[in-house]
Write a structure and sequence with these properties.
This protein has a two-stranded antiparallel ribbon. The chain starts with a helix and ends with a helix. It is rod-shaped. By secondary structure, the protein is mainly alpha-helical. Helix 7 packs antiparallel against helix 15.
C-alpha cells in the first residue's frame, strides 16, 4: 500500500512541477516587463523574451506581412477582382442616388467644405483665374498663326457655314432697306451728297426730287441684293477675308493696346456669370437631374473601373511608398507590453492553458515512471 502511495505522491509532485514549469515559461514570454537588477548584476531572463526582443519582433512581423501576407501582387490581384469593382460601383451609385435626393446649392457646398464667404471667394478665384489663363495663352501664342489655333473640325464647320452667313447678311440688309430707318438713311446720304458738292449739288437738287430718288435707290439696292451673283460675291468675300484672317498672328488680332481691355472684359464677363443668383442658388441636383441615368449607369462605372485600373497598374509603387513594414513596426511599437500580452492571450489563451495542462500530464507520467523505477532499483 505504501508503494502505491509513494507512486501517487511522485505523480502529483511531477504533475505540479510540469504545470508550474510550463506556466512560468509562458509567463516569461512577457514578464517581467523590465530588467531586474541586484546592484549592478542583472538577473538572467529579465526582461521577458518578448519585451527583450520587442523591436526585432516588430521588424520581423512587418517583414513577414509585406513579404508573405500583404504583397504587391496580392494587392494588384485584389484590385483587378470583378467582385470588388462591382461592389464599389454599387456603393458609389447608391451614394450618388442619396445625394440626388437632396437639394444642395453651390453656396451650401462651399460652406460644407469649410469655405467662409464661399460665393465671393469663388467669384474672385474664377474671374482672376480666367484673366490669368487668358493672359498666359495670349502671351504664349502671340506669334502663332490663327490657323494653328483653330481646330480642323471648327475650321471645316466655319467654311461650310459661310454660305449661310452670306445669305443671312443679305436678308438682314434687305430688311433694313425696306424699313423706315433704312429709307431715312438713304435719304440722309443723298442730302449729304448734294450738300458736299457745293453749287453743282444745289443746282442738281433743284431738278431732282430727293424723296423720289430715295425710293428709286431703295428699289435698285433691293434688286441688287436679290441677284444670285451678289450672294456668290459675298460668299467669296467672306471666305477670302476669313482665310486672310487665319494667316495673321494672334498678336496682330489682339494688339498690346487691345489686350488690357480684352482681359478686363474677360474678368468682367466671368464675374457677371458667377454672380448670377439663380445659378449659385439653384440646387446642383436640379442641373444634374437630366443626366442622372447617364451618370449612374455609365459615368460612375467608368470612373470606378479607371480608378481601379490606375491603382492596379501603380500598386507596386504605391505599396512601396506606403512602407507597410515600417508602418506595422511603428504601430507595434506604440503598444504597451501589457496590451501585447492581452492580445496574445485573447487569441491563444485556450492553447496556452492546454500547454500548461500538458506539462502537468507529462510531469505526472514522469513521476509515475520515476516511482516504478525506484521500486525496481
Amino acid at each position: 500500500m505504501n508503494i502505491w502511495i509513494s507512486i501517487l505522491i511522485m505523480m502529483v509532485i511531477g504533475g505540479f512541477i510540469g504545470m508550474m514549469t510550463n506556466f512560468i515559461a509562458i509567463r516569461m514570454l512577457f514578464r517581467p516587463y523590465k530588467a531586474i537588477f541586484l546592484g549592478k548584476w542583472r538577473l538572467p531572463f529579465t526582461p521577458g523574451l518578448i519585451p527583450k526582443r520587442r523591436d526585432e519582433l516588430a521588424q520581423k512581423i512587418g517583414q513577414v506581412v509585406t513579404e508573405h501576407l500583404l504583397t504587391g501582387d496580392m494587392i494588384q490581384k485584389k484590385l483587378q477582382d470583378e467582385g470588388l469593382r462591382d461592389g464599389l460601383t454599387e456603393t458609389a451609385q447608391e451614394f450618388f442616388k442619396e445625394k440626388m435626393a437632396l437639394e444642395t446649392t453651390p453656396t451650401e457646398l462651399a460652406k460644407f467644405a469649410g469655405f467662409q464667404n464661399g460665393k465671393e471667394r469663388l467669384v474672385d478665384w474664377v474671374s482672376n483665374k480666367a484673366v490669368s489663363e487668358t493672359e498666359r495663352f495670349l502671351n504664349e501664342k502671340e506669334t502663332t498663326k490663327l490657323e494653328k489655333l483653330i481646330p480642323d473640325a471648327a475650321n471645316v464647320f466655319l467654311l461650310k457655314n459661310l454660305a449661310g452667313l452670306a445669305e443671312m447678311g443679305i436678308a438682314r440688309a434687305t430688311d433694313y432697306l425696306q424699313s423706315d430707318t433704312g429709307k431715312k438713311q438713304i435719304h440722309l446720304m443723298l442730302e449729304t451728297f448734294f450738300e458736299e458738292h457745293g453749287k453743282m449739288g444745289s443746282f442738281a437738287k433743284m431738278f431732282l426730287n430727293v424723296d423720289a430718288l430715295t425710293e428709286k435707290a431703295q428699289r435698285e439696292l433691293e434688286k441688287l441684293l436679290k441677284r444670285p451673283e451678289m450672294k456668290e460675291t459675298l460668299e467669296n468675300l467672306l471666305i477670302t477675308e476669313y482665310q486672310e484672317l487665319l494667316g495673321n498672328d494672334l498678336g496682330e488680332l489682339v494688339s498690346p493696346e487691345k489686350k488690357e481691355a480684352f482681359l478686363r472684359q474677360v474678368g468682367y464677363e466671368a464675374r457677371c456669370f458667377l454672380e448670377n443668383e439663380k445659378w449659385l442658388n439653384r440646387p446642383v441636383q436640379e442641373n444634374l437631374a437630366k443626366y442622372e441615368e447617364q451618370i449612374a449607369g455609365h459615368l460612375i462605372p467608368y470612373i470606378v473601373e479607371r480608378l481601379l485600373a490606375f491603382a492596379s497598374s501603380h500598386s507596386a509603387d504605391l505599396f512601396n511608398r506606403l512602407e507597410i513594414a515600417a508602418l506595422i513596426e511603428s504601430q507595434i511599437a506604440t503598444f504597451s507590453l501589457h496590451e501585447m500580452e492581452q492580445i496574445v492571450i485573447s487569441i491563444s489563451g485556450k492553447e496556452l492553458k492546454m500547454i500548461t495542462y500538458l506539462g502537468g500530464i507529462l510531469g505526472g507520467v514522469i513521476g509515475i515512471v520515476q516511482g516504478v523505477l525506484a521500486l525496481w532499483i
